[in-house]
Automatic annotation (TrEMBL):
Residues 46-72 are annotated as: Disordered. The keyword Hydrolase applies. The keyword Hydrolase applies. Residues 6-459 form the Carboxylesterase type B domain. InterPro entries: AB_hydrolase_fold, CarbesteraseB, Carboxylesterase_B_AS, Lipase_GDXG_HIS_AS, Type-B_Carboxylest/Lipase. This is Carboxylic ester hydrolase. It comes from Amycolatopsis thermoflava. The lineage of its organism: Bacteria, Bacillati, Actinomycetota, Actinomycetes, Pseudonocardiales.
Length: 477
């Protein structure tokens, strides 16, 4: 590294210039794979050819093609970021490090959420300064989304977005020492769709040796589409685009059309004789597997990986409160959702507590999207790994939208990144609402993530599937 005001790091692909601030050093838009353009959008990621001279790592990356997302009255721009920022080279990582000094610090690789169709490293919520402050090297990852990332096509490898994350982990293994990180102490962390990708990697043989620990925030170990479900999406996409369902045919279609056709694919009936819709019609994409990750952990590195996993207590509120449908939900809506997401809908309804139709609908959504798949994966991992599983339940209730948002999906993120006091997260339409958060809560949550990345221990007892108790986060002890 040079002694200039702006730090420069030498990587195997070339030199990268970053910026230095009070928390350490920040390097942006570093390619971990070659640009995916034309037919290569439907191929496995390839190594980047490198570059001459010093690459500018002070500016943010382009993002994967993606649609704009609207969550009604709630401002979700800190989560989704700026949307589609065009540019060919978006398979990139951002690295926030205390110093690129040859130190061997714990590494946290973060995989964003967004329903497999949106999101990027540019989202404001993924500010890594607190991790660098506390001695952790944070790496955030862009990956292919939507049709290029996850549509099953003849002539193309499946789960290309997952292959991107796998390639990024390979880049970390080979390169992170130059940024002051320890390639032998890597934690992969994902939220929502990103957490489902992490769960899939736990059951992926090729991921062996690339990470030592894993964190799943509001994901699912049972969120994969079956091949039959994936074919339904492919058939619908091909019909909407007027093309044969092959990689060769789709290679000639511009990204703009892929983004434009997404509304026609959302809400497809994906129920089959053997499977319900694991995403409740909210997204037409997921990883595609014949066996759910929670049932295939022995096939991957899971037994040798520490796992921190959990959900929020009111996950489903994000999909009802901002849209104004929590109050307008009817009993018929609840029954329709139960039939969509549960193999035994009447039994699912009978197990719910007394509540309003809106609250029941939220509970069903939370369980279907995140709760059931999290529980199954936690239990499977605990039995396989023997004392290496830690489970949490996050219950802090955001006061956004007149106090109704509650402990909804995504609300834990500002606490994990220790930025819950940022003004742009507050106000009635901000993710955390107008009220100040409890003193010490962000320090506790963020501290648990830091401790886990360092040692595999977040600060509470390991999960016992015979007495399944989750650590309650969201209130101070």
């Amino acid at each position: 590294m040079t002694c200039n005001a702006d730090p420069v790091v030498e990587t195997p692909a070339g030199a990268v210039r970053g910026v230095r601030d009070d928390s350490g050093e920040f390097y942006r838009a570093i390619p971990y794979a070659a640009a995916t353009i034309g037919a290569r959008r439907f191929a496995a990621p390839e190594p980047h050819p490198g570059w001459p001279g010093v690459r500018d790592g002070t500016r943010p990356s382009p993002t994967a093609p993606q649609p704009a997302r609207d969550f009604g009255k709630l401002d979700m721009t800190p989560y989704f970021g700026p949307g589609w920022i065009r540019g060919e080279e978006y398979l990139t990582v951002d690295v926030r490090t205390p110093a690129a000094d040859g130190g061997r610090r714990p590494v946290l690789v973060f995989v964003h959420g967004g329903g497999f169709v949106t999101g990027s490293t540019r989202a404001a919520l993924y500010d890594g300064r607190a991790f660098a402050r506390d001695g952790i090297v944070l790496v955030t990852v862009n990956y292919r989304l939507g049709i290029p990332g996850f549509l099953d096509l003849d002539g193309a490898p499946a789960n290309r977005g997952l292959l991107d994350v796998l390639a990024a982990l390979g880049w970390v293994h080979d390169t992170i020492a130059a940024f002051g990180g320890d390639p032998d102490n890597v934690t992969i962390c994902g939220q929502s769709a990103g957490a489902t990708l992490v769960g899939t990697l736990l059951a992926t043989p090729e991921a062996g040796g690339l990470f030592r620990r894993a964190i799943m925030q509001s994901g699912s170990g049972t969120g994969a589409f079956t091949p039959e479900q994936a074919r339904r999406v492919t058939t619908a996409a091909a019909a909407a685009l007027g093309a044969e369902p092959t990689a060769e045919a789709f290679a000639a279609i511009p990204d703009e059309r892929f983004v434009a056709v997404l509304p026609a694919l959302t809400g497809l009936d994906l129920r089959t004789s053997t499977a319900t819709d694991p995403l409740a019609g909210l997204s037409p994409f997921s990883v595609v597997r014949a066996v759910q990750p929670a049932d295939a952990l022995a096939d991957g590195p899971a037994r040798d990986v520490d796992l921190l996993i959990g959900t929020n207590t009111e996950e489903g509120h994000l999909y009802l409160v901002p849209q104004g449908t929590l109050e307008t939900t009817t009993e018929a809506d609840v029954r329709a959702l139960a039939a969509q997401v549960h193999p035994h809908p009447e039994a699912a309804l009978a197990a719910l507590p007394e509540a309003t139709p809106g609250e029941l609908r939220s509970a069903l959504l939370g369980q279907a999207l995140f709760g059931t798949g999290t529980q199954r994966l936690a239990q499977a991992h605990a039995r396989l790994s023997g004392g290496r599983t830690h489970v949490y339940s996050f219950g802090y209730r955001s006061t956004a939208l007149n106090g109704r948002l509650g402990a909804a999906h995504t609300v834990e993120l500002p606490f994990v990144f220790d930025i819950a006091d940022e003004p742009w997260l507050h106000g009635d339409t901000g993710l955390l609402g107008p009220d100040a958060v409890p003193d010490g809560l962000a320090a506790r949550v963020h501290g648990a993530w830091v401790s886990f990345a360092r040692t595999g221990d977040p600060g509470w007892a390991a999960y016992d599937p015979r007495r399944p108790v989750a650590e309650a986060l969201g209130t101070l002890r």
